Amino acid sequence: MLDNVLQTVKKLIPKRLFNSLAPTYHYSLALFGAIIFGFPSRKLTVIAVTGTKGKSSTTEMLNSIFEMAGHKTLLLNTIRFKIDRESVPNKKKMTVPGRFFLQKMLRKGVTADCDTAIIELSSEAAKQYRHKFIGLDGLIFTNLKPEHIESHGSYEKYRAAKVSLVKGLKQNGVLIVNADDPESVHFKNATDKKVLEWNPNENTKYETSLIGDFNRKNILAAATCARAFGISEEKIRMGIKNLNVIKGRAEFVKVGQDFDVVVDYAHTADSLTELYKTFGSQRKICVLGNTGGGRDMWKRPEMAKVADFYCDLVYLTNEDPYDEDPNKIIEDMLPGFKKHKPRVVMDRRQAIFEAIKNAKSGDVVLISGKGTDPYIMLANGHKFPWSDYDVVKEELEKYLKTNETVE
Length: 407
Description:
- By secondary structure, the protein is of the alpha/beta class.
- The protein contains 15 helices and 16 strands.
- It is globular.
């Protein structure tokens, strides 16, 4: 209802006037939401995670650790919404839905006797004040890389939106930052609260089935935070060991094939680099695309350069075109290829099947960009239900069945 009203107002008043009024509009919604739901964050230990990469994974790790330590948790991230043992996929196509959503979920957590809320906070949420009137007991900063530049207007404004989250720390709140990221200083300078640092270069090791240096860094962040809230090292280790998979994050799809197939959310050049490096010398068949609608157009050739460098065979395909021509998005990526000539297969399902069909024993097929995203976003608000994991599983089963028939 409120969204319909907002869209109508947008059409009736000049864009410049609407943009000037938007902050007041969003701030008012946040305040009304807090009042309506009774400021639920006051009755919970609230830990938020922000940064460019690793937010969802870090929240999942924290959730596993806190549950292992006997806490009743509420979890809100890009992957799912969970209150105690009840969990549903996040199909909102955004990290932090607006219109009272956060306050409502926190209230449900209080009602369900949860004691700890673990939430992922994005720069878009900060820009629209969706986090306002939610007191934070802890805030983790993972890292910062260029992203959402068009939306915010500049990298500096993007960074400022992230840093503004520090103001939400409660009186005894703690800020946990990545000591190896030069942007950490901006977060530390924005608060007089307690600051803890974790260092990606430290030698502390945890037993885990999660792969990649990026997950090792996320584990260190989660462990540092857990210790700040009195959780023992034994419970931290058990919580990390117990987390076998994070959906849509370097997630393996296995149906009996003799090569690896992995689904991942990587949608920036840095994330792609980390993903591809994880699989070392394995022959890599990579499926990727890019987001439309004017979102970070600058990164299209940059991501292509990464794929060109690391992958042995590349399929470019449709991802989330929104109101852009999907072919134009792919055209913007092509200049990034110098070593390889990518194969363009616009139908994402067909591209996935072609990649699987070309895999040999010991290879790895890496399908990136969507992770657990539940839709392919089209023009005029239309969307097509989608799951990379489910489609990969279906195409793998079809491929294996066909091969058995031929043999």
